Amino acid sequence: MQAIWVACCSAGIGAVLGLLFRWRHKSYGLKLVLVIVVLAIGACSYGLIYARLCPGRPAVEPGVYTTLTGVIESVTQKQRNTELWLEVTSEGELRQPCRFRVLALVPVSTVWQTGQLVRVNGIYVLSVSKNQSVLDMLAPLWLFRGKAYPMTTGHAWFTDTGAAALAAMQKTVSTNRVASATLAESIVIGRSAPIANTTQSAFLAAGVAHLLAASGANVTFALRLALMPWQFAARAAGRWRKTARCVYALAVIWVFAALCGGTLSILRAAFAASYRILATSLGRSVGGGVTLTASCLLFAIALPADFTQPSTLLSMFATFAVCEATDLVEASHVRAQAPNPSPSWLSFPKIVNTLWRTMFHSVTTSLVVDAYLLPVVWWMFGQWTPYSAIATVLLEPMAAWLLPLTVIWAALSLCASLLAQNMILFDLAHACGILDTNLVSIVMAIVQTIAHWPWSLVQMPPLPLPAALLCVIAMACCRRLHLPYIANRRLRIQSRVNRQTI
Question: Please, which residues bridge with residue 456 across strands?
């Protein structure tokens, strides 16, 4: 029912915004309202059918003995028991399909791993909490107490490859750098489960927890890396070069998503990248807002049970905030730059000026993104990180360097483990490991420093949903009124014509 509620709210907000921004064109407004109503009815029907076939809540009452089958998403060791965060895929002896998450309390007897398929026998425990938060409404948490048993699964090639790469990387460095190797792999493919809770808390307090989850930046890097050898093989495709490039890029995206474990953030980014690649191959130019809308629709059709997860909603809204900030900041940034048709050597003052403009542009963009995210994070979590813009500007360039360096380190380590007698590859992997772990140490030092600043994670009182929506709508209205650029309407029209031409 949460998916239906979100679909109806989205349709209502879209209709209001459409009428607000296109009030001069009455026919356009009526068509927009009609399309949104049709989409809302279709979304409600689809949500009801899916909830009937694959329910998102337990089928039995608390205290009734039942059996769950699911995949472990995280493991927390306690003194009395082990807490398993499970994504339940079937329930009961007949294994009826379902899709929800439970916190299973099992005895401390077995060492569990993230991604492992388990069967849990026991009962649901009635929660004693009466005050439900926003997260409880969006992603209800059911407590389960019982005994867990591992289940045999098929050969997970991608999971085994990631584990083998991490083990090979850890063999090429000393013991005190093993944690840095795990953190480097998490930044590349988003596997943050083996990372210590203190490290994850520090990234959260610094406002850069998104670096530990594979997202759009990781997909972009994987595409750029995979398209380098494609330039040498493009001639063999002949007249089918454009189609072959599209198929090759789509295959790279989804193979990389499988290598990252198929988490929600990487799947959302894969849908967005796939839509943009398909549109480009068909000769259509799409903007960030259109790509985000289409990818959300594809994501909701493919994974309706996960569409209302807090991480999914926050990730999609963060992408919207990035699109808004980029359009708002880059307009003034491009307008302030003088055209330079002939390339020439830059003097030292000009280089410093360019670096300063780039830094100022990055900080301004991050601040606008934080302004958009503040009401939503305040509403969902009741927390705010005031230093996230500073941390993002400092750490995202380092993360961009970590991506290729970690891939090279993993490739050399795997080759060195396969060819045990080749010491040259081992020495090269060791050198890459030293560089990579030193860069990770610098990143951790910056994160720890920012996390220990006063008020690094501010606790805020609950914010009602209407207040959060009003803040976002107000910023979106300011963005679309173009108040700073009314006098330069000619430049905006020319820029739009150039984008459509390209």
Answer: none
Tokens matching residue 326: 């980029």
Largest CA distance in the chain: 77
Token code pair at residue 83: 């807490």
Nearest in space to 89 (alpha carbons), one of 151, 20, 3, 23: 151
How deeply is 379 buried, as exposed, middle or buried, from its count of CB atoms within 10 A (0-12, 13-18, 19+)?
Answer: buried
C-alpha 428/C-alpha 438 separation (Å) is 15
Q: Of 194-203, 343-352, 353-362, where does mean pLDDT reach its minimum?
A: 343-352
Residue 213's SS3 state is: coil
Per-residue confidence band for 244, with pLDDT thresholds at 50, 70 and 90: confident
Helix (H, G, I), strand (E, B) or coil at 105: strand
Beta-sheet strands, E only, within 40-79: 66-77
Task: Tell me how many degrees the CA angle 7-13-15 measures, rounded to the nearest 5.
Answer: 100
Dist CA 318 CA 213 (whole Å): 13
Task: Give the torsion sign (CA, 206, 210, 212, 216).
Answer: negative
Structure tokens at 461: 């009182």
For residues 412 and 430, give the distance between their C-alpha atoms in angstroms, rounded to a whole number. 9
Phi, psi of 493 (to 5 degrees): -65, -45
83: which strand partners?
76, 105
Whole-angstrom distance, CA of residue 253 vs CA of residue 218: 10
Place of tokens 């193979």: 255
Name the 3-class secondary structure at 92. Answer: coil
Backbone angles phi, psi at 336, to 5 degrees: -80, -15
Query: For residue range 196-225, what is the model confidence (pLDDT) as tens digits?
Result: 778 888 998 998 888 888 888 888 888 888
Residue with the bigger pLDDT between 248 and 29: it is 248
The per-residue pLDDT for 69 is 92
- The CA-atom distances, in angstroms, between 50 and each of 8, 93, 181 are 16, 22, 41
Q: What is the pTM of this model?
A: 0.77
**DSSP 8-state assignment for residue 282:** T
Question: From CA 368, how far away is CA 373, in angstroms rounded?
Answer: 9
3-state class of 307 per DSSP? coil
Task: Give me the residue label for tokens 């963005």.
Answer: 479
Nearest in space to 188 (alpha carbons), one of 159, 158, 218: 218
Phi-psi bin for 63: left (phi > 0), alpha (psi -120 to 50), beta? left
Query: Measured between alpha carbons, how far is 339 from 348 in angstroms, rounded to an integer?
Result: 19
Q: How many CA atoms lie within 13 A of 293 on its CB side?
A: 10
Distance, in Å, from the CA atom of 447 to the CA atom of 212, rounded to the nearest integer, reads 12
DSSP state of 240: G
CB 216 within 8 A of CB 273: yes
Q: Which residues pair with 86 in a beta bridge?
A: 72, 102
How far apart are the C-alpha atoms of 499 and 501, rounded to whole Å? Answer: 5
In the structure encoding, which two tokens stand for residue 57, read together?
């809540």
| Residues linked to residue 66 through DSSP beta bridges, in sequence order | 122
